[in-house]
Structure formats: C-alpha cells, structure tokens
Amino acid sequence: MDIQLTFLKYTQWSGIATLAFAAIAILAFVLKWGIRFRLVGTTGFMLVMTGGLFALSLAPLTRTVIPGALNYSLIFDNGATQAVIGLPQTVTPTQLDATLRQAASDLYSYGRLGAGGNKSLTVRARTVTHPEDGLSVPLFLGQVTRSLASREDDGVAVEVYEDKFAQLPKTKPIT
C-alpha cells in the first residue's frame, strides 16, 4: 500500500476527530462546563496533528533500495563531501558495488555543502583486518562519487579496489 495514501487516510480521520473536538468545545462554552478550556487545547492539538499528517501525505517518504546491498555502519561523515562506511570482512566485490550505491543514495541530502558549486559526495568503504594479535588495520575496499547538485544523478562513479580483496582473510572470522 502506498504510504502517501495511508497518511491521507489518517489525515481524514484526524480531521473528523478535530471537528468533533471543536463541536464539543463549542458546546462546553455554551453550557459553561468546567473543562471548556481543556477542550480548546485538545482541539488546537488535534488541528496541529491534522496539519502534520496532511503534510506527510504530500511529501514522498520513499527510500531507494539497491538489491544486494549489505548493512553498513557509518564510520565518518563530515556533513559535506566525505563519508566512510564500515563493512564486514566477508564482503564480495558485487556486494561492495551495491552497498556503495546504497550508501551514496542514503547519504545524499540537500543540506550538504554542495548546493553552491560543482561539488560531489565521496563515500569510501572500509573493513578492519587483524593481521596479528593486537593489531588492527583499516583496509579501504572502494569508493563511490556522486554529484551533490541533484538527487537524480546518472553519473555515479563506483570504484572497487579488486587488489585489496586479496588482503582479506580467506576464512570467515568468528563473530
């Protein structure tokens, strides 16, 4: 079911409830009930809720889902043009490509500092290897670059560092 239609249905029910509270508040003033001012507050709250639900029914709340993408951890994000995500050591090059595309889509925002010029967002993917006990080494597996000028960017450039996959452990780590 479309989420916008769901919010529109909730808006209709909230609007009906708002009108009911308004009618009860008017009746309370006519009959001089003690809770008349509380009913005015409740009516105002319902009016704000109805407005918010209506706004949510207008805006798209969809998220792009890239098939084959893994869950990732956001390691670093400067809020402007650079971000780093963390992946498990068991990632494959195909999964890395899909995950980098997913991260580029997820991390895009109009609020980043790229609207004024021809800037791009670079998301790098890394994992942590342990070549010996007590030693952890970050290993960058690839990166994706996309434009910050528009959401629909056809020029997404994905780089997968195939040579880095040879440095990953051959056996699955115990988690």
TrEMBL record:
A Pfam family matched in the record: DUF2518
Transmembrane domains' residue ranges: 12-31, 43-61
Keywords for the protein's UniProt record, in alphabetical order: Membrane, Transmembrane, Transmembrane helix
UniProt protein name: Uncharacterized protein
Record lineage: Bacteria, Bacillati, Cyanobacteriota, Cyanophyceae, Nostocales
